[in-house]
């Protein structure tokens, strides 16, 4: 087995034009693999630390030269000579080297870039596609794509308090068909907005960012688009939401300022979701409450957990510590999986397995700041995650993941499986 010879990291720009890392790992037999690290905007308070230079003279302080120095210096020194057949040992070596519990010293961005590149180079060495090399149980299930077609919150200057309005092609028979349902619905939505003289320019995740009067109007126009595209709302194409409530709430109070709805308490937010679930074909709500509002999540699980999927993102930050608490307190029934929230491939796998063993669903996720790296596509198949969100069917960095999944589906041929994880909830 060849061993690690060299690590090099390049400061590249993400889809928002902010610096991030591209790490290249070279083995002593010359085999190389690269990986690029994404970056969030509505980040959870407990996420692993993304190391930024803080030098106001470069990129407003967002440069990643320090993280690069760590990859090429300390991390390279520690990993040089190691075989890549054991991802866990590589990741644990970096965790120990960092020495903090949130990767604040070396940077989760530095560590994750190396971790992903190591996984890729290992796949090359053993001669398997990444999804097969990462999987301990086959990796044949294609995830249901959740496509973010209307952007609000911290991702766009629209009138929407809620961050993400996603379409979910629950009735599609294959991943490729799911993308067709999604793309055609997205096209119909563009036409409806255009005909109403609303903006069709897009937000950070490729969804439209029109100045709609309120959050309800967003659901209404999506249902219209589903119908206009020739699909049945709820049966063919459903809706998933990520309000990202930490960005407009906390302490059990929520400020729906953009849509002029004012402050709502925890109970009023729950009632609002209840009315929406009755009125629209909603199958999933992520971060409907703020990351400090565990009571809000628990109340929602009790009241709505048998009707919809309740996903924890900022609440859980892909961290086994918070996942364990959520299992115990019955706070959610699904995990959002973001590699850079925890900082290594090994820990992201462990988090996903923990959620799955608790009977939860898992949705693998991009970040709002992305690159064309398609690692999460393979990761979702390897883990049998069942769901992925990678933005709208628009913008190259979003489509890189969906297109990779179409290629995997074709490669798997008859062995591929695909189906709705929401059959229970959908009938409207
Ligand atoms: P972020 O948003 O990548 O900007 O954090 C994504 C999400 O909240 O799911
Ligand atoms: Zn989220």
What do these coordinates show?
The protein has 428 residues and is an alpha/beta fold. The chain has two domains: 124 residues, Enolase-like, N-terminal domain (Enolase-like, domain 1, 2-Layer Sandwich); 272 residues, Enolase-like C-terminal domain (TIM Barrel, Alpha-Beta Barrel). The strands form three sheets. It has an eight-stranded mixed β-barrel with strand order 4-5-6-10-11-12-13-14, surrounded by six helices. Helix 12 links the parallel strand 13 and strand 14. The termini are far apart. The mean pLDDT is 96. The site of 2-phosphoglycolic acid has 11 residues, from loops.
What are the key terms here?
428 residues, Enolase-like, domain 1, TIM Barrel, 2 domains, 3-stranded antiparallel β-sheet, alpha/beta, binds zinc ion, binds 2-phosphoglycolic acid, 8-stranded mixed barrel
Write the layout of secondary structure elements.
Blueprint: E1 4-13, E2 19-27, E3 32-36, H1 65-79, H2 87-98, H3 108-126, H4 130-133, E4 144-151, E5 164-168, H5 175-195, H6 215-228, E6 238-242, E7 249-250, E8 253-256, E9 262-265, H7 266-279, E10 282-286, H8 294-304, E11 309-312, H9 320-329, E12 334-337, H10 339-342, H11 345-357, E13 361-365, H12 375-383, E14 386-389, H13 396-412, H14 423-426
Parallel strand pairs: 4-14, 6-10, 10-11, 11-12, 12-13, 13-14
Antiparallel strand pairs: 1-2, 2-3, 4-5, 5-6, 7-8, 8-9
Helix pairs in contact: 1-2, 1-3, 2-3, 5-6, 7-8, 9-11, 12-13
The protein binds 2-phosphoglycolic acid and zinc ion.
Residues 40-43, 163, 242, 244, 313, 365, 367-368 line the site of 2-phosphoglycolic acid.
